Amino acid sequence: RKEVEQDPGPFNVPEGATVAFNCTYSNSASQSFFWYRQDCRKEPKLLMSVYSSGNEDGRFTAQLNRASQYISLLIRDSKLSDSATYLCVVLGGRRALTFGSGTRLQVQP
Amino acid sequence: IAGITQAPTSQILAAGRRMTLRCTQDMRHNAMYWYRQDLGLGLRLIHYSNTAGTTGKGEVPDGYSVSRANTDDFPLTLASAVPSQTSVYFCASSYTSDTEAFFGQGTRLTVV
Asked: Is the CB of residue B35 less than 8 Å away from at least one CB of chain A?
C-alpha cells in the first residue's frame, strides 16, 4: 500500500464550480500535512498547510480527519488558473515529506 | 533573491558516465531533499538530510549518493548513469524536517 494515495483524476469542471479532492495516508503517526500545486513541467509549490481544526485560505479549504486518515482540499468558485495537479503531502516515516501521485484538475471555460 | 537553485537545468548523459546534480539554498534551511519525478509515479524521495553532516536514504536510493558538508549545498551524484535514471530531479529544502518544503526548478536528465 502506498503511504499517500490520491485519485489521479482528471477532474474536469466548469469555471465557477466547487471541486473537492481527497487523499488517504497510511502512517497513523503522521503529524504534518500539506497541499502543493504543480503546474506542467514546473516545480511543486506550497498551496497550504493542513491543520487539525481545518483551515481556509480564500477559495481553498483544507481539512484533516485523523480517525479515518484522510485529508481533503475544497476549491470554491474554480478559476481557469486553478488548472494544475494538486499534490497531497504527508510527513512520512523517514521524517521527510512523502508525496501522493497528484490529482489533475482541468477547469474549463 | 533568496531561494533554492539547481544546476544544470537539463542534461543529456551517456550511460555509464558519472554526473553530479548541484543544489544550493540560501535560506539557512536545516533539511534538504532530493526527489525524482516520473510520469504516473509522482515524486519519490531519493535521499534526504535533516541537518548538515547527516544524510539518510529515501524510497529509491540505489544508484545515487549525496553529501551534506555544509548547510547550503546538497549535491546528488550518479556514479554510473543508467537509462532508468532518466527523470526530472527536484531538490527541496525546509527549515526543519517537519515544516513545508520549497523546491528548486528541477533538472531534466536524460540518460542514453
From this structure: yes
What residues of chain A lie within 8 A of the CB of B102, using their CB? 46
The whole-angstrom distance between residue A36's C-alpha and the CA centroid of its chain comes to 6
The span from the CA of A106 to the CA of A83, in Å, is: 5
Assigned C-alpha cell, A91: 510527513
Distance from CA of A1 to the nearest CA of B (A): 14
Alpha-carbon distance B59 to A86, whole Å? 21
How many Å apart are CA A51 and CA A31, to the nearest integer? 9
Chain A residues contacting B via beta carbons under 8 Å: 31-32, 34, 41-46, 49, 87, 91, 94-102
Query: How distant is the alpha carbon of residue A73 from its chain centre?
Result: 5
Q: What are the angstrom distances between the C-alpha of A94 and each of A60, A90, B48, B53, B108? A: 29, 11, 9, 17, 26
pLDDT score at A91: 86
Average pLDDT, chain B: 95
Asked whether the beta carbons of residue A43 and residue B103 sit closer than 8 angstroms, the reply is: yes
User: pLDDT tens digits for A13-52?
Assistant: 999 999 999 999 998 888 889 999 999 989 999 999 998 8
How many Å lie between the alpha carbon of B111 and the closest alpha carbon of chain A? 18
CB-facing half-sphere around the CA of B79: CA atoms within 13 A = 6
